[in-house]
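Continuing the series of single-chain predictions for the mutant panel. This is the parent chain; the variants come on the following pages.
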Amino acid sequence: MTINDLQDEIIEEFEGFDDWMDRYAYIIELGNAMPTLDEKYKTSDNLIDGCQSRVWLQADYSDGIITYQADSDALIVKGIVSMVVRVLSGHTPQEILDADLYFIERIGLREHLSPTRSNGLLAMVKHARAYALAYSMK
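Parent structure:
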C-alpha cells in the first residue's frame, strides 16, 4: 500500500465516529494494539524532543525500506504515534520525504489536540523524516 492509501484508510476509519470522545477512545485503542518497543530502543537518541510525554521512535533500514517502531508512556500519544508509524513504515526514504501527511488535518486531529500535543505530533513527524533523510544519504 502507498502512503496515501494508508492515510485514506485511517481517514475512512475515523469517519465512522460522530464525536471526539469516540475518536479519542479509538486513538487509545490503536495505541494499546501497537507492540511495546523493546527496552533496548528506549534510548536518548530515539527520544523525541518537543513531546510533553516521553515518546521513542526507532527506525531500521533494510533493502531500501524504513521500518519504524515506537512507544510512549501516555496512552493517547502512543495511539497518535502508532498512526504515524502505520502510515510511514515500510516505505523508501524518498517516499517518506515526499509524503504530504494530510490525514492529520483530515481527521481533525491537529485542531482537537492541546498545543503541546500538537507540537509533539509535529516533532514525531519531523523525527521520522530526519531518519528518512539520513537513510536517503546511504
